[in-house]
Amino acid sequence: MPEADWTKPTFCDEWNAAQLIGHMTGGAISYAERIRAARRGEVILSLGAGTPEEFQAARDEIARKSIAMSPKERIDWIERSQDDLQAEIKRMEPGDLDRDLWHRKGNTKARTFPAQRLYEVALHGWDLENDPDAPLETESLGALVDILESRIPLYFNRSGATGPAGVFRFVTSKPEAAWEMVITDGEASPPKDLSASPDAGLSASGSDMVLLCAGRADRAQKLADGSLRLEGDTQKAAALMDVLFRPF
Known about the structure:
With 248 residues, the protein is of the alpha+beta class. It has 2 domains: 3-120, dinb family like domain (Four Helix Bundle (Hemerythrin (Met), subunit A)), CATH 1.20.120; 141-244, SCP2 sterol-binding domain (Nonspecific Lipid-transfer Protein, Chain A, 2-Layer Sandwich), CATH 3.30.1050. The protein has 8 helices and 7 strands. The protein has helices at 17-39, 52-68, 71-91, 112-129, 141-159, 206-212, 219-224, 234-244, and strands spanning 100-101, 108-109, 166-173, 177-184, 187-189, 200-205, 229-232. The strands form 2 sheets. A 5-stranded mixed sheet has the order 5-4-3-6-7. Strands 1-2 form a two-stranded antiparallel sheet. It is globular, with a radius of gyration of 19 Å.
């Protein structure tokens, strides 16, 4: 990648390519430290931080160091950091999966971090191309769609939204998948079985569904060109999209 390309803008408005890679490097380092601590039964912010403000400052410093590096140094650093994170994930035992981990949007379980990182790598790879009309092309697309079944309720519950209430079905093509989410008293959860008559349904390709749920696709455009299709109570579907179709 030529040096000039590192200063090109990405889909993330606040970052050029070098800044985005620095952000990803900081994420890998931080995740590895938090998983390592969780395996010891500790919950830490990581990066030597004692407060969320200190954590963000440490992340910013890693990004600045990455930007100052040569392209080869920058790539070597993110690859070493990613390898370290992958090693920590492999060291987790079944009993570690439900250990608590700090997250800036609310503490979560260790089992959520591998999926979160997979999403970050795939989506930020798409961000680097900076082509809003491009599909999400990755070998992990099937896994990303599968993860949505648990990811969507998690993000709804973190949003602070209290509704809409009901049963909502999500259907994708390429890959083909279908799952539902039930919202009751402001709490979302996946049901054991599909409902015979969900209140509303949302259908799209796997690529579009992942991008929409990460705030990367234009909802109005997808509805207008038929890429995103709604069934049932469209008002409830619209209210749900207001909550879910945002950058994570």
